Amino acid sequence: MPISFNQSVIEEFRAHGGKVGGPFEGGDLLLLTTTGAKSGASHTTPLGYVRHDGLLLVIGSNLGAPRHPAWYHNLLAHPLVRVELGTEEFEAVAVPAEGTRRDRLFAHVARAEPGYAGYQERTSRLLPVVALERAEHADAGGPREIVSLADKVLEVHTWLRAQLKHVLAETDAHLAAVAAHRGPGEPPAPGLGMQIRQHCLAFCGTLTFHHTGEDAHVFPALAEHHPRLRDALDRLREEHRTVARVKDELLALLGDIGAADPVRFRAELGRMVDELTAHLDHEEAWLLPVLAAVPFPPGAAA
């Protein structure tokens, strides 16, 4: 069975360090892997990109078709994406630009690649401009070598703390901007921005995956081989349930960002900071000494 055009581009891209021929020859091309909004399956799409102020910008042009491309719907549901750029591969949070920022970025893209202006002229929909923001797991001290399960857990914890701090800062900035434009005694206008939504969804998705994996695999193995940790593991599971309840409140508020109560959202974020910070501190104190003896990835030589 012949492979699709996109698949042939993907294979050529990976085989030649990001260089391809045909209609993409000489152009700036990346591979974007998203998670299906309904299927949950991974989907990789070759896309042109434009650089701007350290960001990679991709456009949901769909060649000027009347509907947004599938990859755009996917990243709205699952903002954490995988980017392949040349020989480099990294995770990113995909954030659609809004309002005047979207217009400025699209104008920049159209100057760099005039074809996108033509696609916009073909359709009545506003072509999405998506910024791919690197989602680094390492801390400011640089990449940490991952040789044990303790290293991997710390990497994920570092990312979760950083994302939560980012969402908190964005929310505080949003509230400050709203306060500056309302009259005395007026309540904050409802609504949250896509920047807050996408980073919070990426945080919540990673948090769920991390805690689910611990509950299903890590904690049972530790309880079997280290019975003295069972009381601590029971407490950590209970903390997982507490954090999950706060996470669900955040997700409910994100269901309609145009009508979300920003003050309530900020309060739930504060709860998440308190609960998750305490949980991560407990987990690191109790489990890292044991996990340091477990090679990572599994099966690696100690």
From TrEMBL:
Domain of life of the source: Bacteria
Domain Hemerythrin-like: 151-291
InterPro entries on file: F420H2_quin_Rdtase, Hemerythrin-like, Split_barrel_FMN-bd
GO CC field: plasma membrane
Catalytic activity: oxidized coenzyme F420-(gamma-L-Glu)(n) + a quinol + H(+) = reduced coenzyme F420-(gamma-L-Glu)(n) + a quinone
Pfam families the record matches: F420H2_quin_red, Hemerythrin
Example GO molecular function: oxidoreductase activity
Stated family: Belongs to the F420H(2)-dependent quinone reductase family.
Descriptive protein name: Cation-binding protein
Gene source species: Streptomyces albireticuli
Upper classification of the organism: Bacteria, Bacillati, Actinomycetota, Actinomycetes, Kitasatosporales
